[in-house]
Amino acid sequence: MRNMKIARILVPLDFEEPCQAAADLAASVANDYGAEVIFVHVFDREAAIAHSETGYYTPIDAETIEGMHADIKALLAKAETAAQNKGVKTSSRAYYGRPSEVIPALAKEFGVDLIVMGSHGRTGVSRVMVGSVTEEVLRHTQIPTLVIHP
Q: What is the DSSP letter of 55?
């Protein structure tokens, strides 16, 4: 990657471990290249669901969604602080929409040179039921994307 110009790195975050690993790696790459890291969380209101052990999905009520906003802000702040402690310039934002559509659009809008994402590594029925945001992002962007697996 040394021949690449990397000035901005987009890091989509959720509350899972692979995304934390992606944030850590992005901060290291940004430190090496003098790049800025933009952390984003995309909240899909329409797919905001509570999964039960039976495999059924239930819409989350508005009160629960409101409570999640504080968690999202804390997630972004934690990622920013960790990167800033490594001397990296950061920014963060939260968005609404389908992550697989919003992330590529944001990458283009922000003019990023690299996307760093975590992948949950789901397989089988779990992957079919939940899908793969990372896979969809890879299909919808021409921007180099580094995927971190669990």
A: S
Residue type present at position 25: L
Domain ranges of the chain: 8-148
One-character DSSP codes across 71-101 = HHHHHHHHHHHHHHTTT-EEEEEEEES-HHH
Q: What is the pLDDT of residues 32-79, one digit of tens each?
A: 999 999 999 998 766 655 444 555 566 666 777 777 888 899 999 999
Per-residue pLDDT tens over the stretch 120-134: 765 554 444 345 888
Largest pairwise CA distance in the chain = 50
Instruction: Report the SS3 class of residue 14.
Output: coil
What is the C-alpha radius of gyration for the chain, rounded to an integer number of angstroms?
16
| CB neighbours of residue 47 within 10 Å | 13
Residues 110, 112: Cα–Cα separation, whole Å: 6
Q: Is the Cβ–Cβ distance between 9 and 37 less than 8 Å?
A: yes
The CATH superfamily assigned to 8-148 is HUPs (3.40.50.620)
Average pLDDT over residues 91-102: 93
Residues whose CB falls within 8 Å of the CB of residue 101, separated by 6 or more in sequence, listed in order: 136, 140
